[in-house]
Design a protein that fits this description.
By secondary structure, the chain is an alpha+beta fold. It has a domain of about 180 residues: Alpha-Beta Plaits. Helix content is about 35%, strand content about 10%. It contains nine helices and nine strands. It is globular, with a radius of gyration of 20 Å. The protein binds iron/sulfur cluster (3 copies).
Length: about 300
C-alpha cells in the first residue's frame, strides 16, 4: 500500500514536472541551457532491492530503438561473469558483485549516465552540443555534435560511447534520462519496468530525504552513504547500498570536487603552452564541421 502510494506520488510528481516542463517544452530550445533547477528530477537506485532481472536493460533498448531481443532472453545470468559497461548498443547495464554481508546473495548494480549536476561532458564539449536541462537530464544535440569525443574523455563515469561500428555518420550515445518520455509525463522506461521498485523517480531533493530515512530506519541494511549526493558535485542518479560501491568497484571512487573543474584545469594546463584554447577549439571545430558537412553532402549525392 505504502509502495503504491509512493509510486503514485512519484508518478504525480513526474506528471507535475512534465506539466511544468511541458509548458516550457515548446520553448525548450529558447530556454537557457545548463540550468541547475531546484526541482530537478533524479532516480534513487536501491541496490539492496535490485534482483538483477535486467528488465531495465531490455526496456531501455526498446525505448531507444536498439536491438533488444526477447525479454525472456535477459534471464540468462551468464552475462554477470564479466563486468560490462554501457555502450552504443546498451545505454544501461547491470553488473553483479560479491555481497560482503551475505555471500550467497550477490548485489546487482545498474549503471548508466549519472546526469551530473556539474557535467564534465557539458564542460568539455567545444561546440556546446551537451546541456543540462531543467528536469535534470544531460542531453546532447546530434546536429551540433562534431564527433570530437571530448565528452568521452572528460566523463568521470566513462559513459558516453561512440558508434564505432557505424560506417555512416556515427554518433555519440548515452542514457538520455528518457528525455522524450519524461517531457510527456511518462516515467523513464527502466524505472517503469522495474518489477521490485529498485528504481524510484522523483525530485532529487525528495529522493535524498527518502534515502536518509531508509538509512536511519534500516542501519543494518544500508551503509551511511548516498552515492551521488556529493560525488563530483552531485548527480541526478543516486545509489543506496549495503556496502561501499566505490570499494566494490561498481562505481568509481570520486571526490566531491566537480569534474569540469578538473577537466578544465587539465585543458588549460595543456594548452597554456601552446595556442590559446579558444583559437584551437575554433580551429578544431571548423575542421570537424567542414568534414561533417562534406560527408553529409557526399551522402546526399
Ligand atoms: S555521467 Fe558523464 S556523460 Fe553523464 S552527465 Fe556526468 S559527465 Fe556527462
Ligand atoms: S533513463 Fe531511459 S535512457 Fe536512461 S537508462 Fe533508463 S531507460 Fe535507459
Ligand atoms: S529492472 Fe529493477 S530489479 Fe531488474 S535489474 Fe533493473 S533495476 Fe534491478
Amino acid at each position: 500500500m505504502e509502495k503504491q502510494n509512493r509510486r503514485s506520488f512519484f508518478k504525480s510528481a513526474g506528471l507535475l514536472t512534465a506539466t511544468i516542463a511541458g509548458a516550457s517544452t515548446k520553448s525548450v530550445k529558447a530556454s537557457p541551457e545548463n540550468i541547475l533547477s531546484e526541482d530537478r528530477m533524479g532516480v534513487l537506485v536501491d541496490t539492496t532491492t535490485c534482483i538483477g532481472c535486467r528488465n531495465c536493460e531490455w526496456a531501455c533498448k526498446k525505448t531507444h530503438n536498439l536491438p533488444a531481443g526477447e525479454l525472456n532472453s535477459y534471464e540468462d545470468k551468464s552475462v554477470f561473469k564479466e563486468m560490462r559497461r554501457p555502450d552504443s548498443s546498451a545505454l544501461t547495464v547491470v553488473n553483479q558483485y560479491e555481497n560482503e554481508k551475505r555471500i550467497n546473495f550477490p548485489i546487482n548494480v545498474k549503471v548508466q549516465c549519472m546526469h551530473c549536476d556539474h557535467p564534465a561532458c557539458v564542460s568539455a564539449c567545444i561546440v556546446g552540443a551537451f546541456s543540462k536541462k531543467e528536469n535534470g537530464s544531460v542531453i546532447w544535440d546530434t546536429d551540433k555534435c562534431i564527433g570530437c569525443r571530448y565528452c568521452m574523455v572528460a566523463c568521470p563515469f566513462q559513459v558516453p560511447s561512440f558508434e564505432y561500428d557505424k560506417a555512416l555518420d556515427p554518433e555519440i550515445r548515452k542514457c538520455d534520462f528518457c528525455f522524450e518520455r519524461t517531457k510527456e509525463g511518462l516515467l523513464p522506461a527502466c524505472v517503469e519496468i522495474c518489477p521490485v521498485e529498485a528504481l524510484v523517480y522523483g525530485p532529487r531533493s525528495e529522493l535524498i530525504k527518502i534515502a536518509r530515512e531508509k538509512i536511519k530506519k534500516y542501519p543494518d541494511r544500508y551503509i551511511e552513504h548516498i552515492y551521488g549526493e556529493n560525488e563530483v558535485g552531485g548527480t541526478s542518479w543516486l545509489y543506496l547500498a549495503g556496502q561501499d560501491l566505490a570499494k566494490t568497484k561498481a562505481l568509481p571512487a570520486l571526490e566531491t570536487k566537480t569534474a569540469p573543474g578538473v577537466s578544465e584545469s587539465i585543458q588549460h594546463g595543456i594548452f597554456a603552452y601552446f595556442v590559446p584554447p579558444a583559437s584551437l577549439y575554433a580551429l578544431l571545430a571548423g575542421i570537424m564541421w567542414l568534414n561533417k558537412k562534406k560527408k553529409e553532402s557526399s551522402e546526399g549525392e
